[in-house]
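Dear support,

I submitted the protein below through the web form. The confirmation email said the job was done, but the results page showed an empty box. After a refresh the structure appeared. I'm attaching both so you can tell me whether what I see now is the final result or a partial one.
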Amino acid sequence: MIIKDLFQDDINRKINGVVKVDQDAEDVIAQELDEYVITRDLKKHFITFFNNYDDAFREPTSDIGVWISGFFGSGKSHFLKILSYLLANKEVKGISTVERFRKKFEDDPATFMKIDSATKGQTDTILFNIDIEGSSKKDSQTAVLKVFSTMFYNYLGYYGNDLKLVKLEQFIDKKGKTDEFRRVFMEKNGIPWLENRSSYTFYEDSIVETLQEVLGMSEKAARHWFDGKEDEENSIALLVSEMKKYVDSKPDDFRLVFMADEVGQYIGGDTSLLLNLQSLVEKIGSECGGKIWVICTGQEAIDEVIKARQDEFSRIQARFKTRLSLTSASADEVIQKRILKKKPDATIELEKLYDAKSSELRNLFSFADATKDIKGYTGPEDFSRNYPFVSYQFIILQKVFAEIRKHGNSGKHLSGGERSMLSGFQEAVQKIQDKDEYTLAPFYLFYDTVHTFLDSSIRRVIERCQRAADNGDGIEQQDVSVLKLLYLIRYIDDIPANLENIVILMADSIQLDKIAARKSVETSLDRLFSQNYIGKANGVYNFLTDEEQDIQRDIYQNTQVDTAEIVERIGRMIFEDIYTAKKHRYSQNSDYNFPFDRMVDRTNIGSINGNMKVRVLTVATPKEEKEQVRFMGLKDEVDIVLDNTNYYEYLENAMKVDKYAKRRNIKQLPNSVQSIIQNHREKASEYEKLAKEELEKAIVNAKVYVNGEPIKIKTESAKVMFNQALDNLVVNVYNKLGYITKNINADEEIISVLNGDYLVSSMSGMEDNREAADEMESYIKMQSSRNLPTSMADIQSRYQAAPYGWREIDIAYVTAMLIREQKVTIKYSGEVIRTNNPKLVDMLRKKSETGKTKIAERKSIDEQNKRIVKDILGEYFDVMDIPEDEDRLVLFIIEKFENQLAHYETLNKRYENHDYPDRQYVQRAIDVINRILSQSKDNIALIDKIIKEEDRLFDSKENMENVEEFFKNQVDVFDKAVELEISLKNDESYLRKDKEAIEALNQIRKIVIGKAKQSSIYREIPKLNGLIKIVEESHNKLLDSKRADAREIIRECMAEVHQLIDEGDDLKPYLTEADNTFKAEREKLENIQELLTLEGLMTNMNGYKSEIVTKIKHAKASRVKTIPSGVKEVTPVIPKKFIKNIQRDEIFPTGELRNSADIDKYLENVRDYLMTMMKDSDGINLK
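What the results page shows now:
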């Protein structure tokens, strides 16, 4: 079978390409109507539109706006044009449009009835592309209004582009002189009016004459019209008013429909244009009652056009109640019916062919990494329906058209709808129409459909490649086809342009040998890449424009990167991205974390600390040097010789891009160049990712040498490779690591060792880490024998390094074993540190402390001295259980003497502000103990000091016996006596009447004052209890008597005040005040313990009584008598001055004054009393 014979319709018949709304040739219209395919999707939109449109005939409406949306390829313009034909019911070649659609709605008679009903009356349509008609006026805020105004007046037969001329033509028309005006103008100028009215300003004289002749205007009036404004002002209200007048002049079933294509594109994001459209549609809807409709198209739905300005333009959505959203989903259905529809017998044969070749076809169309909807044939029906094309081509071609428009080529004029698709598929099948049924249409054939719409920069590349093929300049014809294909899918993400997919897209036969085709296509790609027609990244190829080729050449051929820079970048990628560890955790014991130095070729990565080393050798290292690794391997080093993969090439390319981009001042370059460089930077990121993947492969397959010895490591992980290599290196470098048999995890374990707990749970010589302790002990002995000072920092540094590799905490633990076993001495600032020192662990571990901590071989105390000291201690402290162990003995000594010192210092403090006996003995005892404890930093010195101070120690003990007894049994009665003597100083004069009491008080004074600091006092203190009793009993009797006197005085004072005030008297507040005062004082006297104070209280009460009495009398004397009615008011007598009389014995009570302080206190009491009496009086009279 020949392909062209398979189709129902002639494949070579003329089919128009892109739909244009102004195409009105009758043949074109007839073909458009007859071949218009109403898909399932389109039928829904016809139903929605005609339901709303037909309802408006029965019920006037303001909802006259229709918005048809859809992206490129959805068929908006075609749908709009078909609607215009239907609404106007235009007769084409003797058949009405509605009648032509009857068959298309055979399966839906109800919808056809609505279409038929809606087109019974006269409907005029004004179909126009607003982007074309209004482009020159788009800068105006009323641009939409002007376009609609122009199209309306053009429709009426006027010259709508000039409103001034429209008004003239309207005026002439109203006079019924239009035909005459045109005839006269023709006679005067020899040219028709309609064809030349756009240039009317050049015919001023002839137009003036015509107006004079036809309308009878004067020359002045006619020229006045010419001298008027160039263009009349218009408004929405004025335009809609004229529209309404027009439709009102027509029958009731008349409709006028404005059909504006590309409104969405015209408005774009212009706020004023959007408002202008909204206002116009709203006014038409409210004024014209559904007789005028506005139908617009846009690439976006009306919601999308306004969504960013929702708060401002919510009303516009209401203006377009009817919204139709078209998609390109039905484009393949249109093509299948108009182009690819097969003859019945051809369909059968093709289905048989599919059944016979189904396995080959499934194998052929196996895309790599493409989206799921990119696939081959689904079955025999799909094969026969789409042949010689494949299902995926419908999807891809739509996206190709959309992307060509999007990326700024001349393809802006290219529609992705079914009309362009029709052209593309028709032209492609025409190229293979004479081939047999095994032929397939390769995707590159569609290039010829779009090439005339492309920018010259694209076409030049293809044309140059074609010339090279024609001339045999290193390019073959298939290379050109591959290049065309790569351009078509340049922006398509759904199907990556890798070798596998390119082979499929180039497939031109069902019987294709895919292996041979793959090799052939790969050769073409290599030729194109070598001559810079295409780029390649991550196995994906891409088409390059001339500009892109120049930049690619500059980057990859003319930009150089030093090998050292690439190696350094490889190092960072290995040790910062792939294997980031700076310390190796030993797999045999995860407690160990060893630092290691890192190196790539001869470049160090990071700081070098002299630890074990990992060196990676790349392709930049000469082969000879790699081979020498086995024989010249360095100590403490693992060498990883990388396998040969493409990591170096990928990184080199990425770095070339980066270097090129930094060298160019990108912001100053044209946008197109900036975009190309940005694309390369994105590729560079991909190169980086690929380099990392390739590096990981190279590491996994690398050769590994430890200290020059090869080792085999089988793994699929680069990280595991490094870990195993370092494990092997650890075994070689740290060969004394095994001395540590127990790893420590906390300071508490070190403290436990210092306490000796480990000695209890283990046999001697079998303790954990014993071998490590022996190793450390030998080293410290050697250092001490050489008189070499050794710090804990030295110990930590030595045993953390090779060949030990011990952890810092483990080293501290081993040191603690030696301390506990009394094999080493720890000193800090010259002081011997005991095992119970809370800071000892920090001294063994903390970096801030280890340098200050000295460690040396332990020197023991002389055994004879130890025995002497134990005897001294036993007798001095009266103890039997004294430790034999040196450290415990020293701790015992320090603890005992520190406790004794604390006790004596407590006693010494008690002497402050007290005259206790024998304080000098306490202070001497403190001095002796302090001299002993001053040697506590050195065990030997401490023992020697105790022996030296033996006599003073025992003298001190003897001297302190009376002192200890005093503070134990006598100090309380002594303190009581002192306090009593002090408290009776003011009352001593009252006690003189009791000779026994006064004699007892004098005896107390003799003991606590006269003999206070004498040793003989201890015999006198027992007498104090009896003496205190005598004095207290006498004093208490006097207090009781004095309190009774005070109570009586208060009673008498209260009675005197009460006698002055009668019941109901208005002076009663004075009585209340006096009662409160006397009651308070009566309560106070019960707690007073001094006779002198009670005497003062009694004086104060008498004084207060006199004061309150005086106030009451004065108040009574000051009362103003009421003058009876009719009696003449007399001048009141001025009262005499009020002088208080006070007895002197009230002010000056008797008593004994011993010192100046007593005198001051006495006088202060007198002054306070006199000041109180002076209040509310004019003076005081002392009697």
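Response: this is the final, complete result; the empty box was a page-load delay. Residues 874 and 997 are 52 Å apart (CA to CA).
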